[in-house]
Amino acid sequence: MQLKHILLIVPLMFPFALKSQHALTSPDGNLRFSIQVQSGIPAYSITYKNKPVIADATLGLEFLDGGKMTGLKSGKSVSRSGAEEYELFVGKVKLVKDRFREIILPLTEQAEPYRSVNFIARVFNDGVAFRYEFQPQQNRDSFRLTDEKTTFRFVSNPKVLALFLPGFTTSHEGLYTSIPLDKVKNDTLMDMPALFELPGNIYVAITEAALRDYAGMYLSKKNGVLTSTLSSLPGQQQVKVKAGFPHKSPWRVLMISDRMGALIESNILTSLNEPTAINDLSWIKPGMSTFPWWNGTIVPDSVSWTPGNNFETNKYYIDFCSRNNIAYHSVVEHGGHEWYTNDGENYQPGPNADVTKPVPGLDMKAICDYARAKGVGVRVWVHWQALYPKLDEAFALFEKWGLQGMMVDFMDRDDQQMVNIQEEILKKAARHKLHIQFHGAYKPTGMHRTYPNEFTREGTLNYEVNKWDTIMNADHDINIPFTRMLAGSTDYHLGGFRAVAEKDFRVQYLKPLMMSTRCHMLAMYVVLENYQGMLCDYPEAYEGQPGFDFLRGVPVTWDETRVLHAVPGKYICIARRRNNDWYLGAITNREARNITVDLGFLGTGTFNAEIYTDAADAGKHPDHLQQRSMPVTKKSTIALPLAIGGGAVIHLKKSL
């Protein structure tokens, strides 16, 4: 059954004595969403297990022509129950089964200019989503939206875990802040997803789904109330969205549960997106990739050839991939210069940048042909401003060479124009059988269901920073599953195999160091959802090293996900299944702790558990780990000691 798109809402003020109220309850009965229009103003409330969460949160839209919508009256509502079952080609689960209840509520102004909007709400067992559908207007064929005043009025003072930003032009890379909501300053821009912890251990995450032909949304406090804030179109500050009628906003999503793990397991974002727009999916192959830029494109000192943007350097990494079942090699740069012609500096495009012209001496087709013969795919890094002016020409050439995908970097915006550029890149890349990894980009919004050639996004501070700063540590890592990862696939520059104690850490651009333990690094490949995992270090850093055997086999997409432990800011343990094998990853913050995992999620029979834990001396030597095997069943438990900044992984394989 295909989900149907519906209509949307409006706001704000006019004296109407008439009051209309409509309510929806989730299929399991735990969530209740109600909307009322009183005195011409629509507002909604949410309860969870009979406890109020959001109360009298007003809704509103404002336009360049005609100002704010006022004096609204609700028309006849339409309600329905829905159920959908679908497969994700790339995702944290393979099969999704979601049920919801929905209401479509028309809202119309009772005075000139008689504008109308449909408000659509859906209530799932794990959250609430609503959107606006802009209806055709008399004597108008388009609109210019200047503000969307969607509010989120919590009944209590929740603790916030969020990334605060200085402005809309951002790579979304920064440290997270934990603070009571009443201590957040007015007009402070808050990135999404943001997590709110209410009294009684009720967790609410706010984000958006199906961001298409619209401005990206943030949160900020306006007059003490949490309110939506949209990115402005380039070159001005007033207009956020330009569109013709009819048009739809993204879904405004509140994931809600008293079990934090339910928010991480939720598929609400993909369920709010359209089915795949790509007919032939056979060429889409998620997998792990090298990314030599991170390590400095290191090659052995003993080689007889000169390292650089050349065939031999790339052959060295391709051979490494072939030996170790690594799906992709990334061609990026060498010595600070991109693989393509560019007269700019610091990877920024100059006036003569050209992604269709490799630097002298670099034969991209020869590299792709060699890699194909070795069973390895090739992908490239590009700056979006160098790519976009030649998008069609470049994609046709990339397909001719035999490339299979690319990282598109330095997007740094989520205004309506950039949102449309990204969708255009995905559409056209699919025509040429290319997958996409967005860097310096905004959060996912579930669109990998529609475009499964979108493998991953960055949009978070990650281990690339170890090349130039000391701020990355386990306290930051532990915040990601509870914030950014709630939106989806999270690229994090994983794979550094040189862990040192914090007192010994130093910044180095080549062969960067890591602060957390090697087991913490291994576990991040399971904890994080990422369909294009990276092995960022160089071949000699991996081969023969403890733990690399785990990375050689860990999947990047999953059939099932279970969150076993989840305490924001402290620790998390996630189990993920691929076919009949389970992989379990646990990480902690900068506190050592012991956790016990119950293997009740296993099926019948006996499994062999290959267990990797921090060594007893991991405090001094964080690269040290212990490895052991043992038979287990679904009745077993396993104790996992986690060192400071530590972690653990388990591969559970069913015994024959």
Automatic annotation (TrEMBL):
InterPro entries hit by this protein: Aldolase_TIM (IPR013785), GH (IPR017853), GH-type_carb-bd (IPR014718), GH97_C (IPR029483), GH97_catalytic (IPR019563), GH97_N (IPR029486), Glycosyl_hydrolase_97 (IPR052720)
Name assigned to this protein: Glycoside hydrolase
Cofactor: Ca(2+)
One family name in Pfam for this protein: GH97_C
Domain Glycosyl-hydrolase 97 N-terminal: 24-275
Domain Glycosyl-hydrolase 97 C-terminal oligomerisation positions: 557-653
Signal peptide stretch: none
Subunit architecture: Monomer.
MF terms in GO: carbohydrate binding; hydrolase activity
Protein's organism: Flavihumibacter solisilvae
Keywords of this entry: Calcium, Hydrolase
Domain Glycosyl-hydrolase 97 catalytic, first and last residues per copy: 293-459
